[in-house]
Amino acid sequence: MVTSLKSSLLSAAAKPTHLDFMDNLIIAGKTYSSRLLVGTGKYQDFDQTRRAIEASGAEIVTVAIRRTNIGQNAGEPSLLDAVPPSRYTYLPNTAGCYSADDAIRTLRLARELLDGHDLVKLEVLGDPQTLYPNVVETLKAADILVKEGFKVMVYTSDDPIIAKQLEEIGCVAVMPLASLIGSGMGILNPWNLQIIIENAKVPVIVDAGVGTASDAAIAMELGCSGVLMNTAIAGARDPILMASAMKKAVEAGREAFLAGRMAKKLYSASPSSPTTGLIGK
Amino acid sequence: MIELSINGKQQQFTGPLTVTQLVYQLALVGKRVAIERNGEIVPRSQFDQTPLCHGDQLEIVVAVGGG
User: Among A211, A175, A210, which Cα is nearest to A193's?
Assistant: First the structure.
């Protein structure tokens, strides 16, 4: 399955010369040129948020939905000014929700808030310590949201069966974790991710756990359609520079996947330089 | 007087009051918010025609940074 996927992508890549072809990410029928999706949380201020997101080249940004501070001045700066929804595709999330009901309520509010925008990130957490997803509640919420017309990009564990079930429910993208949210531990189970990618007919986007650029590149080399991250950028010493690094890593990993890596072998006895014409022989 | 629960806090207002008037009184005019009343979304187009009753539970939300 992965072989056929790779070969179809490779043949698409091979026809025109090299990188002339458009290798876009398509989610719910909409085309994006960047395969890096970023969060908007944990930055020092809105100016840093704006600059980091610009440097990342991301077109899809996640936002959270929270109670407004009543009684605070209406003129205070807003995320919507720093990251205008006219320029970026907002992906409202359900971070902090521990039940299907809370997640559904949050996304109904998000849809109203964003004038009917129905592309959403569903995440239902199971435990405040680890932020590990509660897949039972996630499945329940996904089913209802899809029936209500939402286009659901769903955060989940790296369980291939659950990922498949979420796709069958009608989610437009499946987003398994690389490791726990905010951990920066990188990709802990590439084998499971590979099974998920092999079986999926919707984009698979690694969400959570990426720590540095090589993690993002590995995710893309596995054949993921994209990578979603927040803390890896916002938590870096220089978030703007890390955002730029992540942009390149995602692009490099994607190109390496399409290029098809050489086979690994312990040794080859086949040097890259000619074996003939050596002097003194 | 009518008492409303707004984002989990009790607040008193002089009635009668519509959602539009509440938004004005809370100084939220011009701010992009979404409102849920007793578990149901109040569409922005219906703020004018939605009267608030004593004991209503309101959630008023905005978009903030998040991952």
Answer: A175
